[in-house]
Specification:
Largest sheet: 7 strands, mixed
CATH topology of the largest domain: Aspartate Aminotransferase, domain 2
Shape: globular
CATH superfamily of the largest domain: Type I PLP-dependent aspartate aminotransferase-like (Major domain)
Number of strands: 17
Structural class: alpha/beta
Helix content: 25-40%
CATH architecture of the largest domain: 3-Layer(aba) Sandwich
Strand order of the largest sheet: 4-12-11-10-7-5-6
CATH class of the largest domain: Alpha Beta
Radius of gyration: 21 Å
Number of domains: 2
Number of helices: 12
Strand content: 15-25%
């Protein structure tokens, strides 16, 4: 197995072949409850009937035309995203990392257009994860991701999340030019579902406004409704200049989106940036199904209801198991921090048929699909409780 595949992932031995909603089935017929959603991707779960019907129809029409030509769905997808984010215009790509690359380029080009070409640096947060491509990796803090590929982009400053003094200092033009942009995740997923305080998000907005710094929010994991708002930062009353989206936006197909404010909508000109496969009719049909369900199909209300149920259950578990030392996250993006045994618990839950993963070393991350039922949330909590009881023994 994997004889001709580069071993960049430690993969489980099971071969998954089909699924239904929040359940996924392996080749031996064993059913697992999916509380990972392909790492926050499968917002509509597996084999959602509306998604399946739309993609079956589209497969008989057009799969790809390139961005040199129009197809019927680009503007509707972009318009819905603009409406849901409160921003102006979209650039489509194929992944979250590509969305971040576009955001970094837009920030630099904007500063150049504004007569500030010396503003090329970036400020990012400790604990950040923005992707594996060179630009995205350059603003990713985790040393194990960075070290094998250095030197990366120069001029990146990392500050501790939540540290107002450090952020103010980093955005001030003390030694030479101020940065082109500040990039942050309102909820840091890969470092352990760490949520930035609302006041810190508001401070970042004020400091960027005062210094002419582009504010980029990376909501690849926490955005598109996962917290119960379309953007996680909505709850803080903050709108960035640029937001990057991906993971759930095409409900399982590869799509990234860089969404910009009206002030930045003209930063890129024809030829400045591009992507051969991005925004094609097939992925746009998937995105339309998802966005319609978010906008008018009650999907956000479903996330809020199941997120509240999940949190209440986790709070009961936290009271009953001293090994649980902290709960993190919002909506259907929850983290359970343990004093010990997170890796063992993740493996035990998998043996019991509950798919989760471990992040930040000591946090069990829960990212169920938005369509998860109340009964399935209850079942997942029961399995988590059983796993913790085993860990205690």
């Amino acid at each position: 197995m994997d004889e001709h595949v580069l071993l960049t992932y430690r993969r489980a031995e099971e071969v998954f072949v089909d699924g239904d909603g929040a359940e996924i089935r392996d080749a031996q017929g064993r059913v697992f409850l999916d509380f990972l959603s392909g790492i926050a991707v499968n917002a509509l779960g597996h084999a959602h009937p509306e998604l399946v019907a739309a993609l079956q129809e589209q497969a008989t029409q057009l799969l790809h035309v390139s961005n040199l030509y129009r197809h019927p769905y680009t503007e509707e997808v972009a318009s819905r995203i603009a409406h849901l984010t409160g921003l102006e215009a979209c650039f489509f790509s194929n992944s979250g990392a590509e969305a971040v690359e576009a955001a970094l380029k837009i920030a630099r080009k904007h500063q150049r257009n504004a007569g500030r070409p010396e503003r090329t640096g970036f400020v990012a947060l400790e604990g950040s994860f923005h992707g594996r491509t060179f630009g995205a990796l350059s603003v990713t803090h985790t040393e194990k991701y960075r070290a094998p590929f250095e030197p990366l982009l120069q001029g990146v400053t990392f500050v501790p999340p939540g540290d107002a003094v450090a952020l103010e200092k980093a955005l001030a033009p003390t030694k030479g030019a101020a940065p082109a942009a500040l990039i942050l995740e309102p909820i840091q997923g890969e470092s352990g579902v760490r949520e930035l305080p609302f006041e810190y998000l508001r401070l970042a907005r004020r400091l960027c406004d005062a210094s002419g710094t582009v504010l980029i929010h990376d909501e690849v994991q926490c955005g598109c409704g996962r917290t119960g708002n379309f953007l996680a930062a909505e709850a803080a009353g903050v709108t960035p200049d640029v937001v990057t989206l991906a993971k759930p936006i095409a409900a399982g197909l590869p799509m990234g989106v860089t969404v910009v404010s009206k002030a930045l909508a003209g930063a890129l000109e024809p030829g400045d940036h591009g992507s051969t496969f991005a925004g094609g009719p097939f992925v746009c049909r998937a995105a339309l199904v998802f966005l319609r369900l978010v906008d008018t199909g009650g999907l956000l209300e479903q996330v809020r209801a199941r997120g509240q149920q999940l949190r209440r259950g986790l709070e009961t578990i936290e009271r009953d198991f001293p090994v649980v030392i902290e709960l993190r996250g919002r909506g259907l993006m929850q983290g359970v921090r343990l004093s010990r045994g997170a890796e063992e618990l993740q493996k035990e839950l998998y043996r019991r048929g509950l798919i989760v993963n471990r992040t930040g070393g000591d946090v069990i991350r829960l990212l169920p699909p938005y369509v998860i039922t109340s009964a399935q949330v209850h079942r997942g909590l029961d399995l988590l409780r059983e796993g913790l009881e085993t860990l205690g023994r």
